[in-house]
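Maltose/maltodextrin transport system permease protein MalG
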Amino acid sequence: MIRISKKGKIVVYIALGIALLLTWIPLLWIFLTSIRSRGETLAYPPVWFFKPTLSSFSYLASSTDFLTSYFNSIYVGGISTIIVIGLAIPAAYALARLKFAGKDNVGFYIISTKMTPPIVVLYAFYIMFSNLGLLRTLSGLIILHIAINLPLAVWLLKGFFESLPQVIEEAAKIDGCSDWSVMWKITFPLSLPGIMVTGVLCLMFSWMEFIFASTITDPTTRTVPVLIYSWISYSQIYWERVAAAGILYIIPVFVLSIAIRKNLLRGMSFGLLK
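Predicted structure tokens:
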């Protein structure tokens, strides 16, 4: 066990405090902007003492465009994440446990797709989806998000599965369990923290994705990031509404992370030690 002197602890606490400030100051500024009036938002120098108002949140609550985009984000993020995890678990288990020709090459080919910048394949996806009739549909956006997140999910889960001891799985096979039964009855429960971490990461990537969503959606199928971008123009920018939408948009992922924080911490340390 590493012992840290009092001076060392002070340095660590100061570093943690600075990191915490750098993390929370932007969020605090966004929140303060969201409860300012338009005049106070545009005031220069900035107004530090003001009367809070919820007018921006009231506007968003009555905005059909925002509510529709919010539902689209939840629908696309939730459905794509569920499908990604459902496909990634058996694929990752096969790469981690089964023996077959070209196994290492398959793993490399899967993760190598994440090395390609999205802008490179954007035109190809646009043409393909146009021919398939998937432009301006939520189904098309879900398929895109699955294609984006699936390689990462497979690679992460493969690492989680490989970190599990094989003794329990071998004992189950001796008792007559098939590979499929071992995966769902033994490996899946043991690696649940890692699966949760992977699911949250996939949800966050889908939740924040902008490039593809801004290209293949229309006003009825766009997600919140695309809607917020549409509010920014050369003539005027309603920063207080943008800030309020940002606050409302981070709430679901923040609440989900807090709700499963114990499993997230276990999952993030999963596989460090074998």
